[in-house]
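As the next step, I wrote out a protein sequence along with its fold in token form, included below for the reader:
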Amino acid sequence: QYLRNDSALALSVHVDFLCIDCHTAIEELPHPEEMPPVFCGSCHDEAEETYKYHGRMSVEGGEGIPSCSDCHGTHQILSFENKMSMVNSRHIPETCNHCHKDINLISDHELLYSPQIITSFESSVHGKASMGGVHLAATCNDCHSTGGTSHRILSPGFNESTINHFNIPNTCGKCHMNIMNDYYEGIHGKLVLQGETDTPVCTDCHGEHGILSPSDPNSTVSPARVAESTCSPCHESAKLNEKYGLNAGKLESWIDSYHGLKSKAGDVTVANCASCHGAHRILPHTDTTSSINSSNLQKTCGTCHPSISSEMASIPIHSAPGISQTPIAGIIANIYIIIIFVTIGLMVLHWLFDLRKQIKLVMKKKQVRRMSLNAVWQHTFLMVSFILLVITGFSLRYSDAFWVQLLFGREGGFPLRGIIHRVSAVVFLLTSLWHIAYIYTATGRRFIKDIFPIKEDLIHFWQMILYNIGKRDERPRFRRFSYVEKVEYWALVWGSIVMIITGLFLWFDDIAIVFFPKGFLDVMLVVHFYEAWLASLAILIWHLYSTVFSPAVYPMNPSWLSGKMPEEFYKHEHPAVPLPGSNEIKKTSRVDDKEKEI
């Protein structure tokens, strides 16, 4: 009588049961505090017989497999139609996830563990509909229940399982019957019926738990993603193309077309794979009912282009990548390629001769020594090794880029790339050590003293800003090294230290991993990569402008070749320093923000 008045039991489907109807072990009162588990199979014999298949290990007596009460509750067992029931459609994901998120349970029974399953399901079209109160929306048991009962749940390895590869179309077809029929009429469905395991089924295109609406831009079958995310992984597979006798390059040729370019630009209305081939009833062009059969092309294209002619509709979409569609167009394209190479090549050749002449004219001017021969050779080794390091380093990261393929090819070239990169690294390191030895000489000590930042550099920086915006008439009177050159040098010092240290860790990673965790090497890789970008961009933008592209310097400052530079340029760049060999001694002081020669 007490239990009949219990609030949990009052709403239960077992409200009319006596205690001993379920707790059959009770033989006397008062009964023991610890009671054996209730055996639901005494009434639900069919459910008990089929439930043993829930989880692979349950048939072997594995511990931890959920019991009836884990899914249905104890005294509060409610009808699945009750919105509060643990097995109501809106609560089933939460009920199933109670065990399927338990990493220990999953590990003990070697089951699939994915903590994102419930999250992705909740954001899917099925999850949103189910939790929104749509009773017919698919939940866990709709897809995973075998034989029409929620208690017989089999893993995909069982031939009978609803989520076995060959049964998935039928499982989805329980709700999407027309789509299932279209699928089986298409080439993919026919291959599945023939037992081909590499043929896509519903989940290969739409996903499993996180199925999104095609209108969702994140969906794998959205107009913006269907070509590259869904169709191309199979149709760009060399293995599958060889097996089924298909031509590769379909994705590239589509991207090269008007449709592909518009899709890349974000147009979701332009034709994609499904627009022409269909979404589920996909047939080869040889099938007379296929949407891409020659007799049906005008109708297919006419969906978007109502006035299209049959001749225009018959123009191939998936021709060779490029704009040529006919033999004569291909010939003209080849002629143009030759013209481009010859024309641009002659232009480059003319430019090189002109540049050579301009450099010779610069070299003929009265020169003053800017760099010692020692410094010139240091710069040369540093420059060559740096350029090779940049090229070979980025070739590894961007191996698919056309310039990498041109330099190293798809096969055979990358071992050479690694050798060049490491040899260049050694040269860079030795040059750095050479420079360290150099700064301990008398000339080197003077160099360090002159290039060390001082307060005057900040004054010159501000004066240069004023000069560039028209608030000052004269450039700052730089000494031996301007603030620009000082920034370059000390940035080089810092970058060299970082690149050498991280590079050595990555080169000898098998030794480093003994003393440092894997995460440390990941940090070294990130620092090495982005420091390389920083150094490369600094050279391209900061250094090359000041030494080549500045109008006052062009065609270049030749001191890196001979150690000398034109006297007039020296006076322009370093007005506060007397010319080498001059007996004049000049000092500068700053009075009221103006320089005064003393």
Notes: The chain has 31 helices and four strands. The longest helix spans residues 327-364. Residues 1-5, 583-598 have pLDDT under 50 and may be disordered.
